[in-house]
Amino acid sequence: MLAKYSLRIIFLIAIFLGTRTLSFAQADPLERNLWYNEEKTAKIQIYKATDGKFYGKVVWLKVPEVDGKPKVDKNNPDDKKKNDPVLGLVLLKGFKKDGEKGYDDGTIYDPKNGKTYSCKITNKGDVLDVRGYIGFSWIGRTTVWTKAD
Predict the structure, then answer these.
(1) Distance CA 35, CA 21 (A)
(2) What is Dmax (Cα atoms) for the chain?
(3) Using alpha carbons only, what angle is made at residue 136 by residues 132 and 138, rounded to the nearest 5 degrees?
(4) I need a surface site. Which of 2, 20, 33, 71 has the fewest CB within 10 A?
(5) CA 65: distance to chain centroid?
(6) Cβ atoms within 10 Å of 1's Cβ, excluding its own
(7) Percent of the chain scored above 90 by pLDDT?
């Protein structure tokens, strides 16, 4: 009787560990880390949403407050969003995986100037090349984000 229950417990533990390993194996490399922006003033968490696309939000700020109040998105062109906190702000939107290391067809929002740019990301292991552009990707600027973990 004891052997029968022991086998069940071992079986359940194996299933539990197997599903945890499987779920980790399916995570995209972008999702496994937090990323510093180029200036190291923010950490961005990139995640895959239910629509199958990748998004990135600010989860840490070096200077989270201004005059004792949360830093807000004061340069947003939408007046209704100017008081939204920068912490939690979704900067990256709608990226599709393109090959093994590329992510394309997304946008990046720059809270410093309130502008949104077309964007593509290239994963180079410990760094991401994040290229924002208007119109053509060769007319733009690349910033390098590094692993924060």
Answers:
(1) 23
(2) 72
(3) 70
(4) 2
(5) 22
(6) 5
(7) 78
Dist CA 104 CA 96 (whole Å): 5
CA dihedral sign of residues 101, 105, 111, 115: positive
CATH architecture group of domain 33-147 = Beta Barrel (2.40)
Q: Up-side HSE of residue 31: CA atoms within 13 Å toward CB? A: 15
C-beta separation of 103 from 54 below 8 A: yes
pTM of the model: 0.81
Strand bridging mode 69-70 / 102-110: unpaired
Tokens of 103: 């992510």
Q: What is the pLDDT of residues 64-105, one digit of tens each?
A: 999 999 999 999 999 999 999 999 999 999 999 999 999 999
Domain boundaries along the sequence of the chain: 1-28, 33-147
